[in-house]
Structures are given as structure tokens and as C-alpha cells.
Write a structure and sequence with these properties.
The chain is mainly alpha-helical. The chain contains 18 helices and no strands. Helices cover about 65% and strands about 0% of the residues. Helix 4 packs parallel to helix 6 and helix 17 crosses helix 18.
């Protein structure tokens, strides 16, 4: 009896899931057909507008309010591709319908909220900049990142501080991605980033990302800040980020500070310091780099070999290449890079 009841429950459950799957499939198919039908309706008018045969407002007669979200999605595809006057036309066409998607910022799935933020950012700035900035506090990190990337661009400098205040929540993202986003803000962001570098109350990883962004900006004013951090800080990522600034932007007077880091117990810091010495050092640093060839950490030895090549000491590497063992492989690799 019990087995019969259990089997009946399983059968009903299976049928219910099958019906649900069928309903979802039918809904998706209906949505796809509607989307294709609407695109066929709008595309000819869109081409007329872009070709100069009609004004942007001419397309409004073909758009119903109930299709506003579809229409904005349609326009977004063009907004991503077009520039200049043509992109301005897309903004004109989107303007009457953007207010209709504002409620989506407060409810719905993370995907729908993210799409709403993206539409406002691509086609409604600067009018909707405050609404986009509000999404920095969205519970979804992806939605918040869409807002951050949209705001951290030239022309929206007034929102840079707000984005930077939320930077800590994005540290799970790729560090190079974050640095590139910050560098995309242009020169006006450099003073703010240097402030983050100096801020001891900020998370070290956030400060390290600021270092990377300033290095991408080739910000010479960050060099003395990087030297200060080598003296006062011990966090691996922050110190390594400072050393990379000196490698790219430093010069001879910074060698002494970098040499001290080459003696660090942390192998990552040692490797980064040795790499910097190969870039800004000179003949006096060759003996130190020769010593670092015997470092127990492979990446330190590799950077030392590259540094020797950069400083012109090929003879040491050639002798190593003629021997047997791992150091021969290392020297040969560097000589053929």
C-alpha cells in the first residue's frame, strides 16, 4: 500500500514537472516569435532614420508601450555599435521609453535589473546617472559592476568617488579587470587613486588595485607614493603593486629602495623587486642579480636572468646555458625569449 502511494506521488510529481517544462518552453517560443515579429516591424524604420530618410521620432508610431522593454533591447544592440550622431539618434528614440523601465531597478531578477541599468547607462546618460549610481548598492555584484563600469568613464567624474567607495565589494573580480576599469576613467581619476594608495584604512587589495590602475595611466606622481609604501607597508600585494610602478615609471634614484625589497622573505616580493631592478638598475646591480640566480624560488631566478639580459650581462647566461641541469634550461629560455 505504502509503495503504491509513493509510486503515485512520484508519478504525479513527474507529470507536474513535465507540464511545467512544456509551459516554459511554449512561453519561450512565444517570446521568441514576438521578438522576431517586432524586429521585422522596427528594422525598416530604423534603417530609414539612420540613413537620413526619416527623423528619429518617426519610429514612435510603430512602438506600443507594452513593447517598450523589447524596443529598448532592440535599440541597445545599435547603441553598442554606433558612435557620434548616429548614437545620438538612438538616444532620441530611447528617451520616451526609458522611464518605463525604472521600476525594474527595484524588482525582478538580477538579469532584468542588470539589463535595465545597462539600458539607462548606454542610452540615458547623463539624465539617469543618479539611477545608475543607485545600482552600486544592488544586492547582485554583477548588477553593481555594470553600474560601476558605466559610471567610471570620462564625463561622469562626479560619480567617481561613489564608485571608489564601493570598490571593496568588487575585489573578487579579476585584479587586472578592475585596474583597467579604473584606468578607463582617465587622468582625472589619478588624484583619487593616489588617495586610495595612501589610505591605511582601506583594504590592502583595494590599494593594490589602485596601484595597478595608476601604473596603466603612467602616472608619474604615483612614484613617490610607491616609494613611501615600500617603507611603511608589508602586505604582499600592496608592496608588489608599488614595485611594479617603480619598474615602469621609476629611475636610478629609486634603485636603493627596490634593492631592499630584493632581500624580502616573501618570494613574490623578491621576484617583483628583482624584475624592477632589471628595468631601472644598471651595472652596479649585476652582481646582485647574479646572486639571485641561485634563489630557491624559481620565479626569482627567472626574473634575475631576465634582468641580467636587460642589463647586458649575456656572458653569465651563456655560461649557464652551456652547463647541465635546470639552470641551463632557464638560461637558454631567457636567451631565446
Amino acid at each position: 500500500m505504502v509503495l503504491s502511494i509513493a509510486a503515485g506521488i512520484l508519478l504525479v510529481t513527474s507529470i507536474s514537472f513535465a507540464i511545467l517544462a512544456l509551459c516554459l518552453r511554449l512561453l519561450n517560443e512565444a517570446k521568441t516569435r514576438r521578438w522576431e515579429r517586432l524586429k521585422k516591424r522596427w528594422e525598416p524604420a530604423m534603417l530609414e532614420v539612420l540613413g537620413g530618410a526619416a527623423e528619429p521620432e518617426a519610429i514612435f508610431d510603430r512602438v506600443d508601450d507594452k513593447d517598450a522593454h523589447f524596443f529598448l533591447a532592440f535599440l541597445l544592440g545599435y547603441a553598442r555599435l554606433l558612435r557620434g550622431d548616429e548614437q545620438d539618434m538612438v538616444r532620441v528614440m530611447a528617451a520616451p521609453y526609458l522611464p518605463l523601465i525604472l521600476p525594474k531597478l527595484e524588482r525582478g531578477t538580477a538579469e532584468s535589473r542588470g539589463n535595465a541599468v545597462l539600458m539607462l547607462a548606454r542610452m540615458g546618460m547623463p539624465q539617469y546617472a543618479d539611477a545608475v549610481a543607485g545600482a552600486l548598492d544592488d544586492e547582485s555584484p554583477i548588477v553593481a559592476m555594470i553600474a560601476a563600469r558605466s559610471l567610471f568613464r570620462p564625463g561622469h567624474e562626479e560619480h567617481f568617488p561613489a564608485v571608489l567607495e564601493h570598490l571593496a565589494r568588487f575585489t573578487g573580480w579579476s585584479r587586472s579587470f578592475l585596474a583597467s576599469m579604473l584606468a578607463g576613467g582617465g587622468w582625472n581619476t589619478a588624484p583619487l587613486l593616489r588617495g586610495i594608495m595612501r589610505n591605511r584604512n582601506e583594504r590592502p587589495l583595494v590599494r593594490a588595485v589602485a596601484c595597478d590602475a595608476l601604473r596603466e595611466l603612467n602616472d608619474l606622481d604615483s612614484v613617490p607614493v610607491a616609494v613611501e609604501l615600500l617603507v611603511d607597508e608589508t602586505d604582499r600585494e600592496l608592496v608588489a603593486g608599488s614595485l611594479r610602478i617603480l619598474k615602469q615609471l621609476g629611475h636610478r634614484e629609486h634603485v636603493s629602495a627596490v634593492r631592499l625589497m630584493a632581500a624580502s622573505r616573501d618570494p613574490v616580493i623578491r621576484a617583483t623587486a628583482v624584475s624592477a631592478l632589471g628595468a631601472i638598475g644598471g651595472p652596479p646591480e649585476i652582481p646582485l642579480l647574479q646572486e639571485k640566480l641561485d634563489d630557491p624560488f624559481f620565479w626569482v631566478s627567472l626574473e634575475a636572468a631576465r634582468g641580467l639580459l636587460s642589463l647586458g650581462d649575456t656572458s653569465t647566461l651563456e655560461r649557464m646555458a652551456e652547463t647541465e641541469g635546470p639552470w641551463s634550461t632557464l638560461a637558454t629560455q631567457v636567451l631565446t625569449e
